[in-house]
Specification:
Helices cover 33% and strands 7% of the residues. The longest helix is centred in the middle third of the chain and has 20 residues. Helix 5 packs across helix 6. The protein folds into three domains: 133 residues, no CATH class; 71 residues, no CATH class; 73 residues, no CATH class. Strands 1-4 form a two-stranded antiparallel ribbon. The chain has a two-stranded antiparallel sheet with strand order 2-3. With 318 residues, it is mainly α. Strand 2 and strand 3 form a beta hairpin.
Length: 318
């Protein structure tokens, strides 16, 4: 007796939706994009690959769903009403390979696929638990709410970050320390770094905007960006007044010929405003004196030229 071969449709592969599924409240609760996504998954369903069904954005665009948000909502809706289930969560491997999420229809058995990390499972017909259309829509709305709440807890491209700072850590003009340079200006020195070669950017509060010299290049709602440098190094500030190089060169020559005396603080503060670096000031005075002078605030660079009047007094006190 000849063994009867399995029936094979002459027209090839086809999509089958049972009347029980089509007439169910779960199916009636779907929107047109949801139905399109369900048909796209059934398009790839064969005899043994249930659980290995995927619907990437590239494939979805070819089948009528052109936006990634619409695709994500449709897949969540199908899972919410129980027509499909998630068999493997997509993501990226350690080597950078991107893997899609895999799905299965719930009215067909799932065979084990170890290479896809898919376990064998019997059909559970989860969509039968949806009793009414309103019940199905409420499940879909709840799934959307859960997705939004989960997204609000994510930061930095979807990766969960552990909070490592308190609200008091925000840098404002009111929480400066006595050792900070430029107390009456926008700059803020941070003592976290050890070398000016490794600068760290930070965003400060909007309270700094009130005293900015030039803010026309920023939008009103964006606070300025400052560069945090080690204590004692020259403070690089995006709002610092620009000084011509000729003034800086003149200030360097003038300070080199100026003797030490009672007006060291004025000379250091004015020289710093003229563009002289911490190294240049420390070459004229000791680093401790420079640090104490800069901690006391700033002074217009033009005050440096007024010290010439008291040159005789300074020489007598040197």
């Amino acid at each position: 007796m000849t063994k009867r071969s399995a029936f094979k449709d002459a027209r090839g592969h086809h999509i089958r939706i049972y009347s029980e599924v089509y007439d169910s409240p779960a199916f009636k609760a779907l929107t047109p994009p949801d139905v399109m996504a369900f048909l796209s998954l059934l398009r790839d369903l064969k005899s043994t690959n249930n659980g290995d069904l995927s619907l990437t954005l590239t494939k979805a665009k070819e089948r009528g769903i052109c936006h990634h948000i619409t695709l994500a909502r449709s897949l969540r809706a199908l899972c919410a009403v129980g027509l499909i289930c998630l068999t493997r969560k997509g993501g990226a491997t350690r080597g950078g390979q991107r893997l899609p999420s895999l799905y299965a229809v719930t009215d067909v058995d799932i065979f084990e696929m170890r290479n896809k990390q898919v376990e064998a499972r019997k059909a559970d017909f989860a969509w039968r638990k949806v009793t009414t259309v309103e019940h199905g829509r409420s499940l879909i709305n709840q799934a959307e709410a859960n997705a939004k709440n989960g997204a609000s807890k994510l930061k930095d491209q979807g990766h969960k970050l552990t909070a490592t700072e308190s609200p008091a850590d925000v840098i404002t003009p009111k929480n400066r320390t006595s050792g900070d340079t430029w107390q009456d200006r926008l700059g803020h020195a941070v003592t976290l770094g050890k070398s000016p070669k490794n600068l760290a950017f930070m965003r400060v509060s909007d309270d700094f905007l009130g005293g900015a010299d030039f803010v026309s290049h920023r939008t009103p709602d964006v606070s300025p960006i400052h560069i945090a440098t080690p204590m004692g190094e020259s403070v690089l500030d995006s709002d610092r007044e620009a000084v011509p190089q000729a003034v800086t060169r003149k200030a360097a020559k003038y300070l080199a010929s100026l003797p030490r005396g009672a007006h060291d603080v004025v000379a250091i503060q004015a020289g710093h405003s003229a563009g002289l670096s911490h190294e240049q000031l420390s070459a004229w005075a000791d680093p401790q004196t420079v640090a104490r002078a800069l901690a006391g605030g700033s002074r217009p660079w033009r005050d440096l030229w007024t010290l010439d009047i008291d040159r005789t007094l300074l020489e007598s006190q040197a």
